[in-house]
Amino acid sequence: MSDTAEKVKKIVVEHLGVEEAKVTAEASFIDDLGADSLDTVELVMAFEEAFGVEIPDDAAEKITTVKDAIDYIEAQKAA
Amino acid sequence: MFGLQGKVALVTGATGGIGAEIARALHRQGAKVALSGTREAVLAELAAELGEGALVAPANLSDPAAPQALVEQVEAGLGRLDILVNNAGFTRDGLAMRMSDKDWADVLEVDLAAPFRLARAAMRGMMKRRAGRIISIASIVGTTGNPGQANYAAAKAGLVGMSKSLAQELASRGITVNVVAPGFIRTPMTDALNDQQKTRLMERIPMGRMGEAADIAAAVAYLASDEAGWVTGATLHVNGGMAMI
Q1: Residue A36 annotated as catalytic
Q2: What is the pLDDT of residues B80-122, one digit of tens each?
Q3: Which positions in this protein are listed as binding NADP(+) (chain B) (predicted)?
Q4: Which of B126, B220, B227 is nearest to B178 (CA)?
Q5: Chain A contact set for B169 (CB, 8 A)
Q6: Distance, in angstroms, between B119 CA and closest chain A CA?
Q7: What's the CATH number of domain B8-234, 3.40.50.720, 1.10.1060.10, 3.40.50.620, 3.40.630.30?
Q8: B2 vs B28, B222, B237, B245, CA distance in Å?
Q9: Which of B18, B34, B210, B223 could in theory staple to B10 by disulfide, Cβ–Cβ 3.0 to 4.6 A?
């Protein structure tokens, strides 16, 4: 697993207070991990802080799973 | 009851009579208090009066970047921010026929936009801690209207709608968002009214007296307390019965 993936999962675990095993790549923040809309905003802000990237609203809307977040952040870092 | 030990509050407009009294009340209940306003010397005087647990945090809220910086300054200086009191505001009265775009925009900027920006900056830490208080000082005229105050009344009514929306957004995080709406408060300006004007005003206030800054501060102290945890999206009218709404 990449560093980014590790870090993203750690943030999700801390933020949503879910078991690490549940935070799979395909897990949806809202449907599988019990996040509400405010949680998803907080997660995006936490990602921005942790990775030093900007995630605009239209991109944030499309980040619904753990994998979405990892892919977006890795693409930003590569750019 | 109503103790605020261990809490940190920020009071904007702490140079004014009501703001200073709110700061005193929160401090008396045990909170550390950051005092904001534009006149640093007046803030320093109040901080000296309060003693330990007071931070002078000057800010010019007509600058859109100031609210974020102010919240950061408070969090750096006092470690956190639990209670935001949006008290700063000013008037630029005039009949609508004669009210310039600038007079409208300037009042809306400081009296409505700045409280929003402060709330937005403050809610982040509050959300993380799953607790917080956002209290905005509106005015009776936000509900009743007042000739010559279209801008001010709009801003104060705006605070109510804003607070109700934020209350719904933040309730699940243990943050309450409320409004205190003062009626006529005794100030140097109202002291200058002549006897006839005073009599006419008193006829409209069932309690038969002007409000004191302490009347408003007590309402804020209550809403800031843990005991008010189930009160959110509310407007507490403190007006001697002048408007029962």
Answers
A1: yes
A2: 999 999 999 999 999 999 999 999 999 999 999 999 999 999 9
A3: 38, 87, 152-156, 185
A4: B220
A5: 38
A6: 15
A7: 3.40.50.720
A8: 11, 6, 19, 25
A9: B34
